[in-house]
Structure formats: structure tokens, C-alpha cells
Amino acid sequence: AALPGPAPADWARAPLEPAVRAVLVAFDEHFSYAKLCQALRYLQRGGPDCLLVGTNRDHRLPLEGGAAIPGTGCLVKAVETAAEREAFIVGKPNRYMFDCVVSEFNIDPARTIMVGDRLDTDILMGNSCGLTTLLTLTGVTTLEDVKGHLESGCPDRQRLVPDYYVDSIADLLPALED
Amino acid sequence: VGGGGMAGCRRLSGAGLREVLGPAQGLLFDCDGVLWAGERAVPGAPELLERLRRSGKATLFVSNNSRRSVAELERRFSRLGFRGVRAEQVFSSALCSALFLRQRLLLGGGGGPGRVFVLGGEGLRGEVRDAGLRLAGEGEQGSGDAEPVRAVLVGYDDQFTFAKLAQACGYLRDPQCLLVATDPDPWHPLSDGQRTPGTGSLTAAVETASGRKALVVGKPNTYMFDCIVERFGVDPSRTLMVGDRLETDILFGKNCGLSTILTLTGVSRLEEAQAYMASDSAAAKDLVPNYYVDSIADLIPGLDE
């Protein structure tokens, strides 16, 4: 519903929908202070009875030429900061989506490969869920990035290291041909 | 007074009041929740300031609110019944952010000051202009002719949008471009008990998108105290900080070597101060005020007739 008036004092007087029990933060190119205001009001009103959920924490969505646009993670962080609470994150690297897949398809992690281009989402989720992980280099990650994590003494960073890598997923074809 | 072990969070009244206020040369006051709440002065607050003035004690004001220019704040003081407060006594995060940027961009030398991209309202933008800096416009794309943007300033911006966030990130790809925030406040109270998001939430979005950490001008950081000292030469050991928010005002006082008084007419509850006092964490101890009062009007009996 349109918010009455141009200022936060007006927005804070707009009626809240009584049935709202969750605030879901996703990618929103029309994100605004007014929406952030409303989100905070619902979270304040509901307290722990109002869920705060974010689809993912990606910081940036890369465009061609090195540019990027802000990712959903920025909007989640704005809401979390204002509300002083942490969102439940559905997306990678959290395991919720993997749990959805497992419940639909009865897969065996030990016999499943996770293929991705991002270490801190795709590979981390795969490693956390006991999958074999395969990094493809056609996306955001370089081999130098992986080396850095591999050679750091840090266990958190080691978890970002894939089991295998390919230059492109097309490199998998020869293994499948008879 | 200041320094040393953990503050005691003692109620200030009776003889204690005179002992603390007597030696003080000056008091720094936060504004929202201390002097006024919304459009209403805290009862007795204007009289307290008047009595301080007559006692010969300096009164200065230090506010994280980056919405208003100092000129607007001066008018607000007057409108709410506070007499004789001059603009030069008022240190807002808008003013101090502009001074900070002037220091770093105009006086820092090297390659021209460039422009500042401001996420904030007209009050903040005006302070930046008054400091001699030029603003980048909204909706501009990078242009070869225009002066480069050398700083992104995040303030309270009730017109914040995804597009402005993206524009800010574009400028911040240049590692030489500063990222500055007026204050860290996550939210502010409204008069009906609801909350409105603060600069801190917008800064978090910009930091996440850009991968950079903002330089935060406002309390609890000490830059605003540096501005005060530069203009007035205040002695921290003879100055009291009075505020309503433990995480900003009281920590600011601690960081600047001031004794602190928490007033309960604003954001923080006494229980929160006591919880910090009981906490094992060293950081929590810095949030405990030396003293507290229900309202700053309670300070009046500590002053001479």
C-alpha cells in the first residue's frame, strides 16, 4: 500500500497489516528508506513472533567489465542493523536449500557433486553438507583466490577450498562420452 | 573523575550533586532524549541551562543527529524554550562530518578537493557546502569532465534508495575515495515509542556493497570532541558528559576522558546500564555511566541559587 505523506513521521502512522508475521528481504532494486522503516515497524511490533528472513547474503552481483551492483546482503544488513537482530538466511552457504533438495530427491551426499563458481557460497555449502565440490573458473573465482585459502593456516578459509576445479563445466564432457 | 576502573552508575542527588557539579567547568549535552523529546522540551531543561549559565559553567551540545544544520538547531533550541543558545555552542554530526571532510579533502593537499557524494538531507548537504566542498549530484554517471568524487558521506537519509546505494558503490571502486558516516546509530525513537532506522543501518548497506569500512565521525568516536577542544579548549577532567544513550553518549564520554551522567528521559534504561555493569566483558564496562538522573532537571539543586 502507498505510504501516506513524504516523511518518516507520516510513514510511522500508516496502518500495519495485522496478519504480517514475517519480513522477507530479497533482491530489491526499489529498496528505500520508507520500506526499511516499514520492515522495522513490523519487526518491532511482532518481536520474536515476527520472522526476519533473508534470501541470501551476496554482497555484489557482478556485471561485465568489473562493475557490480549491490547484492541482497546489503539490504539484509540494513534491516538487521536497524532491528538489532540476525536474519535467518535461506541461501548458500547455509544448508537450508540443500535440505530442501534432499527432502525432494533423496540424494546421497557422498555420491553428489556440487558445481559452482563462488567459494564463499557454492563451495562452502557443498563442503559443509558433505558433498564433493567442483569449482569452475568461468565465474568470479580465480585459482589464485583458492591458493590463498589453501595456504592460509586458517580452518575457516580451508573450508572454502574445493575438492576439484575445471576451467569450464564443458571440460566434464569427455568423461561422459562413451 | 574519568579514567581508572569501571564507573559506578550511582544516582546523583543531594550532597553528591554538589560534589560533582561544583568543580565542573562545563557540561556537554546530547540533545535528543536529553533536552527534548520530539517537539517537547524535557520539563525543567531550559531552566537547568539558564542556571548553568548563571553559575558560569560552559554548556556545549554534541548531537549525532545529522538531519539538521547548526542554524536549524539554533532555531530549534529557541522554539523549544531554551534561551541564549548560540550556533557556535552546537556540534552536530552534520557539522563535524563537514569539518572532517574539509580537513581531509581541502586541506590535505594533492590533486584538488574533488566532490562529495552525500546520502542525506538538505541540512547535511548545506553543512558540507558551507565547509567549502562541492557536492556530486544524484543520478549522475561517471563523467570525464567533472571533478572526481573523493568522498561518499552517509548520513540520515530518508530518501535512501537502491539506486543511490549503487551510485555510492560506483564511486567507492576508487580506493582513494573516502567512505565517511555521520554517526553509527542503528535507530532513533519516535514519540509514540516506535523506531525509525538510523544512519548506522544505511552505512551497513554501503559497507557491505563496497567491501569498505566507514570512518564514523559521530559518538562514540572522539572526533566531535576534537572539534569542541579546537574551538573552546575544554579540560576533560573538569567537564561532564550528559546523555541518554549508553552505546554512544556514555562510551563517548569514556573515550574522551569525561565523567558521564546518564539521563533516563531517552533511549537507555537503567536496567541496561546495570546489565553492562554486571557483565564480564571489558567492553561492556565502558558503557557504564559514572552517575545517572531521572531527568536533567534533577541537576538544578546541585547549582548555587
UniProtKB/TrEMBL annotation, chain A:
Q: Where in the cell is it found?
A: Cell membrane; Cytoplasm, Cytosol
Coiled-coil region? none
- Give the way it sits in the membrane: Peripheral membrane protein
Q: Which gene specifies this protein's sequence?
A: Pgp
Instruction: Tell me a GO cellular component.
Output: cytosol
Official protein name in the record = PGP phosphatase
The protein's matches in SUPFAM superfamilies, at most eight in alphabetical order, are given as: HAD-like
Enumerate the Gene3D superfamilies for this protein.
Answer: HAD superfamily/HAD-like
- InterPro entries registered for this protein in UniProt: HAD-like_sf, HAD_sf
One example GO MF annotation: sn-glycerol 3-phosphatase activity
Keyword list, A-Z: Cell membrane, Cytoplasm, Membrane
An example of a Pfam family matching this protein is Hydrolase_like
Automatic annotation (TrEMBL), chain B:
UniProt keyword list: Cell membrane, Cell projection, Cytoplasm, Cytoskeleton, Hydrolase, Magnesium, Membrane, Metal-binding, Pyridoxal phosphate
Task: Name a GO molecular-function annotation.
Answer: pyridoxal phosphatase activity
Co-factor note (free text)? Divalent metal ions. Mg(2+) is the most effective.
EC number(s) recorded for this UniProt protein: 3.1.3.16, 3.1.3.74
Which superkingdom does the taxonomy of this entry point to? Eukaryota
List the catalytic activities from the record.
pyridoxine 5'-phosphate + H2O = pyridoxine + phosphate; O-phospho-L-seryl-[protein] + H2O = L-seryl-[protein] + phosphate; pyridoxamine + phosphate = pyridoxamine 5'-phosphate + H2O; pyridoxal 5'-phosphate + H2O = pyridoxal + phosphate
Cofactors named for this entry: Mg(2+)
Report the membrane topology from the UniProt record: Peripheral membrane protein
Tell me which residues bind Mg(2+). D30, D32, D244
Q: Which GO terms describe its cellular component?
A: cytoskeleton; cytosol; lamellipodium membrane; ruffle membrane
List positions binding substrate.
S63, N64, N65, H188, K219
- One matching Pfam family is Hydrolase_6
**Localization of this protein:** Cell projection, Lamellipodium membrane; Cell projection, Ruffle membrane; Cytoplasm, Cytoskeleton; Cytoplasm, Cytosol
Q: Which residues form the active site?
A: D30, D32
Principal localization reads membrane
Q: Which family does it belong to?
A: Belongs to the HAD-like hydrolase superfamily.
Quaternary structure note: Homodimer.
What PANTHER family does the database record attribute to this sequence?
4-NITROPHENYLPHOSPHATASE-RELATED, CHRONOPHIN
Functional summary from the UniProt entry: Functions as a pyridoxal phosphate (PLP) phosphatase, which also catalyzes the dephosphorylation of pyridoxine 5'-phosphate (PNP) and pyridoxamine 5'-phosphate (PMP), with order of substrate preference PLP > PNP > PMP and therefore plays a role in vitamin B6 metabolism. Also functions as a protein serine phosphatase that specifically dephosphorylates 'Ser-3' in proteins of the actin-depolymerizing factor (ADF)/cofilin family like CFL1 and DSTN. Thereby, regulates cofilin-dependent actin cytoskeleton reorganization, being required for normal progress through mitosis and normal cytokinesis.
Q: What is this protein called?
A: Chronophin
| Gene name tied to this protein | Pdxp
